[in-house]
Amino acid sequence: MTSADSGQRELILRVATRLFAALGYDATSISQIAEAAGLDVATITQQAGGKRELYLAVMERAHHAELVGLERSVGEIAAASPGETSAAVHHLIDDYIDFCAQNSEFPALWMHRWLFDASDVTELDRQYVQPLVQYIIEAIAPLTRGSPDMKYVIWSVIWCTHAFSRGGVLDDEGNRVGPEDPETLRRFRAYLHEMVHCVLALPGDLPGNPPGGAT
Fold it and tell me: Distance from the CA of 129 to the CA of which of 28, 67, 106, 162 falls in 20 to 30 A?
C-alpha cells in the first residue's frame, strides 16, 4: 500500500467513524461515506471493502484505542502497593472518563449497538467487550473488601460514562452541558469516584478528598 493509499484509507476510516457514530450502522450507506470523504464509491470499496468490512475496521480501531488507553491504568493497579490501590482504581476511572470525553464518537458506536444497531454483526461484543470487561474485573476484584457483583459495577461505570460523554446533564436553567464544561466534568468525576469507592468498599478515604467523602 502506498503512502497515498494509506492516507486515503485513514480518511475513509475517520469519516466512517463519524457517520457510524452519528447515524448508526443501519442508517449509514457507502454512498454517504463516499460523499462525506469526497471520494467515489469504487474508491471506498477498493480501499476498505464493503460497508460491513468498513464497520468492522472502525470497531476494531475503536477497541484498540480504548484498550491502549486502559492498559497503563490497569498495570498501575497490579503494581500498586496496599496503600496505593484506591488511588490506582480512581486513576483508572479518570482515564476512562477522559478517554470517552475526548473520543465521544467511540462510546456512540457502542451505544448504537445497545439499541440493536448492526444486529447482524454479532461477533463484536464477544470479541471485544466481554474480554475487556473481564480484564478489568480481574484487575479490581482482588482489591475489594465486600462482595459486589463486579460485572455490574464495571457495566455501571460504562453506562454512566458513555451516557455522560454523549448526553451530559441538564443544568439549573435546563441547558444540556457535558464534559466540555470543566465544572460539570469535575462533578461527574467526583460522583463516579464516590460511587465506585463505596460499592467496592475500597480502603481509606476518597483519594484527593477530605475525610467524609467527595466535596
Answer: 28
How much is the pTM? 0.89
Using the structure block, give the residue that is written with the C-alpha cell 477530605: 210
pLDDT digits (tens, 9 = 90+) for 81-139: 888 989 999 999 999 999 999 999 999 999 999 999 999 999 999 999 999 999 999 99
Alpha helices in 80-181 (DSSP H): 85-102, 105-114, 123-124, 130-140, 150-167
Chain-centroid distance, C-alpha 173: 29
What cell was used for 151? 460485572
- 184 in Cβ contact with 178 (< 8 Å): yes
Angle of the 85-102 helix axis to the 130-140 helix axis, nearest 10:
150
User: Rounded to an integer, what distance in angstroms lies between the CA atom of residue 67 and that of residue 199?
Assistant: 24
SS3 25: coil
C-alpha cell at 175: 441547558
d(CA 140, CA 200): 9
163-193, pLDDT tens digit by residue? 999 999 999 999 999 999 999 999 999 999 9
What CA–CA distance (Å, rounded) separates 12 from 161? 27
